[in-house]
Amino acid sequence: MRIFAATSRYVQGPGVLDALGKHSMVLGNKAFIITDADMARLLGDRVLASYQAADMMAMLEVFPGEVTHAAMAQLADKAKAAGSDLIVGLGGGKALDTAKGVALKLEAACVSVPTIASNDGPASGAIAVYDEHHIMQDILHLPRNPELVLVDSQVIANAPVRFLRAGIGDAISKKFEAEACHAAGAMTLLGTPASQIGLMAADACYKIIRQHAVEGLRATEENEVNNALEDLLEAVVLLSTVSFENGGLSLSHALARGFSYLERARGTLHGDHVAYGLVVQLIMEKRSTAFIQELLGFYQQISLPARLHDFGLTNPTADEVRSLAENSMVSPSAARFAPAVDADQLERAICQVEALTI
Ligand SMILES: [Zn+2]
């Protein structure tokens, strides 16, 4: 059996935020917009005006900041009491995942409006739930992907460049992860084998990043939108998600799970963890030194992290390396690799990455 999962409508471009109401009209009558305090201040009026222009009712709710079961339950009660039938997430990954969680509870339609492009979450049906200490507790799944994903490229270009860089980190691994998942005969998060479209999306995602990342990042540094940034965003926000949902994840994302337990890496971004995880995966794949060095040259060009040092782990201790290896094995993606890996092998691969000269 094969399943293809994706958002049913993806809208991207400078200024499209003002058309959010128009694109939402087919999905519901009353929007409940979940956002953080900063985005409420910066974009709240524009978003509410777009719903007003579309003759839709809408209310804005500032969420507490972490994606917890308690926060989702509380917001679901509020949205239900307000009679909302469309849940909109506006902001970073946490606001978007909280909105997805509320939509799941209410069985309502869901819209993602990312204001940064730091990971593959906005277009995905997956919801990462954390505890108050930012340790991942659960991954929940919407029965369908968010019905609408709307990306205002000017809003993304105005955000700090480190977020888009992390989004590239989260996306650049997808080709290698989908191919590894496929080669291992493992299942995607949909419970089906990697599909042809998943593998092709992952390959395209990688090519677009290699072609447009430098210029796209430069545009973001200047808060400008150009075609390179538009292509890059499509890879980072849309293709990255189509890749992992339909092509599968592997060791790179297993390593990202391990990072969440490293005290000294606290506050560093998921996509950066994945970028590092990809180097570990390539070592496990026994890729040639020349291949890995070429990729690391690209990492250096766009300032992607390639060492634990880059995450604040100056002189990583043996315990930290062991903890990263062991906690990476907690992720189901660690099993989407052939031949099977264990913590000892990962530990050795991490040490090899640390010893690489760029
Ligand atoms: Zn990811």
From TrEMBL:
UniProt key word Transcription: no
Lineage top rank: taxon: Bacteria
SUPFAM superfamilies: Dehydroquinate synthase-like
InterPro entries assigned: ADH_Fe/GldA, Glycerol_DH
UniProt: NAD(+) binding residues: D36, G93, K94, A95, L96, D97, T115, I116, A117, S118, S124, Y130
Binding positions (glycerol): D120, D170, H253, H270
Pathway: Polyol metabolism; glycerol fermentation; glycerone phosphate from glycerol (oxidative route): step 1/2
EC number: 1.1.1.6
Cofactor note: Binds 1 zinc ion per subunit.
CDD domains: GlyDH
All residue ranges annotated as the Alcohol dehydrogenase iron-type/glycerol dehydrogenase GldA domain in the record: 8-152
Named cofactor requirement(s): Zn(2+)
Catalysis performed (reactions): glycerol + NAD(+) = dihydroxyacetone + NADH + H(+)
Molecular functions per Gene Ontology: glycerol dehydrogenase (NAD+) activity; metal ion binding
Keyword annotations from UniProtKB, A to Z: Metal-binding, NAD, Oxidoreductase, Zinc
Gene3D superfamilies linked to this entry: 3.40.50.1970, Dehydroquinate synthase-like - alpha domain
Name recorded for this polypeptide: Glycerol dehydrogenase
Source taxonomy: Bacteria, Pseudomonadati, Pseudomonadota, Gammaproteobacteria, Pseudomonadales
